[in-house]
Design goal:
It contains ten helices and ten strands. The protein is α/β, with parallel strands linked by helices and 277 residues long. The protein has two domains: 176 residues, Spore Coat Polysaccharide Biosynthesis Protein SpsA, Chain A, CATH 3.90.550.10; 86 residues, no CATH class.
């Protein structure tokens, strides 16, 4: 554990890990980043179907049960709706949920101090800034205070998923009294806010926005891709090789020319600095 801690409080930090997309190194690095960037004592709770390889300081729990069928044929991480249950592994009080594909680059303490204890606070949807929609990449809530989100979902999960499409849209539109949003500078999107323009990224790596505390990696690429400068499901290639692959359909990273052209980035210095145990 790094630094002096305020032992009078123990902050609760949560993450989910299921399937094979993210290995235990993502949980271990999340612990390291929280440890370096939170002034208070904390417990990192990981809800997972496989705890092998996760460092001993992390408290692992079984994935919480939705107690209903998981929707099919829709996008979104609907399993996360189980986080709104009344008894979440005995955790009490305010908790901060952080997606595993996040890179923490600044002090997390203000995320626990912003707004009221009963608020549900989300990041804004960066791709639709005028929609007043939120992202559950990083959100804070009081455990057990919004059980109706899970209870309503359980009544007709498939219909709700088809209507809202994404779990974070359902949360944004369904919290009674409305959600709140983090200050715009705190949580930034890697592709939107860090990468240079489509031509610039061939010459310059991603840069860290001023005042950012967390960089989110929704979709592609992931932090491990940014670390070495490749796109998800791609390989490390030179600028010239990437451009040559534009004319070879089976080697394109996207079916369209424009899509492939923008799927390039150099190794990211701030990921190398911050995304570690």
């Amino acid at each position: 554990m790094g630094g002096d801690r305020l032992q009078s409080v123990n902050r609760q930090v949560l993450c989910f890990k299921w399937g094979t997309k993210y290995g235990p190194e993502y949980v271990n690095r999340l612990f390291g980043m929280v440890d370096r960037n939170l002034q208070d004592a904390f417990t990192l709770h990981c809800f997972t179907d496989d705890k092998s390889g996760i460092r001993s300081e992390v408290v692992c729990h079984e994935l919480p049960d939705l107690n209903c069928d998981l929707p099919t044929g829709v996008p979104g991480m609907w399993r996360k709706v189980a986080i709104w249950q009344a008894n979440l592994a005995g955790i009490e009080g305010v908790a901060l949920y952080i997606d595993l594909d996040s890179v923490i680059v600044g002090d997390l303490t203000p995320f626990f101090e912003f707004g009221a204890e009963t608020d549900v606070v989300l990041a804004r949807n960066w791709l639709k800034p005028l929609s007043n929609l939120g992202q559950t990449t990083l959100f804070r809530f009081k455990v057990g205070a919004q059980t109706y989100l899970l209870e309503n979902f359980q009544k007709n999960p498939q219909a709700i998923a088809e209507h809202y499409r994404f779990e974070q849209h359902y949360v944004t539109r369904s919290v009674r009294g409305g959600v709140k949003f983090w200050p715009n500078d705190w949580v930034k999107h890697y592709r939107v806010h860090c990468l240079p323009g489509y031509i610039g990224r061939y010459f310059r790596p991603a840069s860290l926005p001023k005042s950012a505390r967390v960089i989110a990696f929704p979709g592609e690429p992931n932090p491990d891709d940014a670390l070495v400068g490749k796109w998800t499901n791609g390989t490390e290639v030179s600028v010239l090789e990437h451009l040559r692959n534009l004319f070879v359909p089976e080697k394109r990273l996207h079916k369209s020319w424009r899509g492939h052209f923008c799927c390039f980035h150099k190794p990211c210095p701030f990921v190398k600095e911050h995304w570690r145990d």
